[in-house]
Amino acid sequence: MQLPKKFQEKMQELLGEDYPLYLKCFNEKHYFGLRVNTGKISVTDFLKITPWELTPIPWMSNGFYYDGANLQPAKHPYYHAGLYYLQEPSAMTPAYLLPIEAGDKVLDLCAAPGGKATELGARLGGTGLLVANDISNSRAKGLLKNIELMGIGNALVMSEDPEKFVNYFEGFFDKILIDAPCSGEGMFRKEPSMIKNWEEKGPEVYSQVQKKLILQGAKMLKAGGWLLYSTCTFDPRENEQVVEHLLNHCSEFSVVGVEEFEGFQEGLPQSINSKEEIEGFSEELPQHTKSKNEELKKTLRLYPHRIKGEGHYVALLKKSDRFCAENKNEINENEKEVNENEKEINEKEKKKSNREVQSGNVDKIPKELLEFLQLVKRKIEINQIYVKGEQVYYLPGETPSLARLRFLRTGLYLGDLKKKRFEPSQALAMNLGKEEFALSIDFKIEDQRVIKYLKGETLEVSDVITRSDKGWVLICVEGYPLGFGKLACQRVKNKVQSGWRMM
Long-range pairs for 431-436 at CB < 8 Å and ≥24 separation? Predict the structure, then answer.
């Protein structure tokens, strides 16, 4: 692999005597990670049923290395049951370090493809609210599938410009994660194709986007809330300088130290030498920060030659109760240039949306839906059911108004109303436990019907179902749902959503 000369010069200065070790790691193996979905299964229970040899990731209680050269866990039924998520080990770090508590309102601002959002949702444990957003609609569709596969029902999946978010969510969230788009230097070893993008754009382009994002996130965070900023790059302009930008504009923020593990390195507040002081450098290198704020040492740098993972940067920040006047002025000027007429329209649409959910919509719930809900052995709050056309959703308890925002999912997608019948969704099946549905069939992992079901085939179940049983049935493997089927005459008609089937 040929690394750009400009990049090599920068890394040599950043790493010093470690630079040869960094270059050497390009010839070493990559590491593959599996993160247990603790929203569905405990780590202890997963280790009892896993068919593979796993090695713990030192800084993750639910993260493990696996042999990616010889194993294909994405093709195992447990993957289709949402028991784990496959993720690069270093990339697991940001969501794990953000201190999530039950009942929190959490935002993942740049969430696709969902590795971090699904960990945040798992740790919420069905409480509070997760808002997962990605400005790219195509990427947000992949995000949605991963959230539903992991069984997360208390989520709003959005595809909106973060700039527009600020007008709706000012001071709303308890926790915010910004895994910002970046130049991707930390992934060069694993994905050499990213070098081309770095050459076309580079840190100087991304740093401007990142500074804007972190101020927008600051605006949406409650006083006393936590913000975690991360990238998969090394350049100080995208890391320490972005955090410094927030600290300079928002005096109520401070950097919080986190537990450091072997191989983790502290942030770099000091300045880099200029080219005159470094013999052989072709051009001046960027300074780390202007302020040389020692607080930035509490941020973390993850290098692939020091840990078993790729490159990453992580900064955890806390917002005090002090008012951020500078930030408010700056963001208000740029993002609240909405005329009075548009504001009035927004308010009318918000009130209309809330009325539909809280009152009028409840009266429209059809009998066939209510009959199906009798099969669900879980408390259902009727006033949180939202019917939109044929589609039925179950809204999280603290759902904000979504007037004039683009969203792919509002809460848990329950299913569709057809002609005098209701068809439950794949998302609902993944959100349920085996005991939470009136009729279920639980196969052992070695039963060939598990694979047949995942491939969309009809199942013969005369050995486990009496002739009188019929209707909707939840299909499970080792106690964990895979999807719904329609039972009749001791046969199960497959209802696995086509895009979820095993290939």
Answer: 431/148, 431/151, 431/152, 431/153, 432/151, 432/376, 432/378, 432/474, 432/481, 433/481, 434/474, 434/476, 434/479, 434/480, 434/481, 435/377, 436/376, 436/377, 436/378
Q: pTM of the prediction?
A: 0.89
Q: What is the 3-state secondary structure (H, E, C) of 325-381?
A: HHHHHHHHHHHCCCCHHHHHHHHHHHHHHHHHHHHHCHHHCCHHHHHHHCCECCCCC
Residue corresponding to tokens 């990427």 = 139
- Name the one residue in this structure whose structure tokens are 């006047």: 325
| pLDDT score for 311 | 98
List, by residue range, all CATH 2.30.130.60 domains of the chain. 435-500
Q: How many CA atoms lie within 13 A of 358 on its CB side?
A: 11
Question: Which of these ranges, 247-251, 341-345, 410-414, has the smallest mean pLDDT?
Answer: 341-345
Residue ranges with strand state E in 30-154: 32-36, 55-56, 63-66, 84-86, 105-108, 129-133
What mean pLDDT do residues 388-397 have?
Answer: 92
What mean pLDDT value characterizes the chain? 89
Q: Residue 238: is its pLDDT beyond 50? A: yes
CA distance 457 to 494: 6
Q: Which residues are catalytic?
A: 232
**How far, in Å, CA of 475 to CA of 463, rounded?**
15
> Which class is 435-500 in CATH?
mainly beta
For 368-374, what is the mean pLDDT?
A: 95
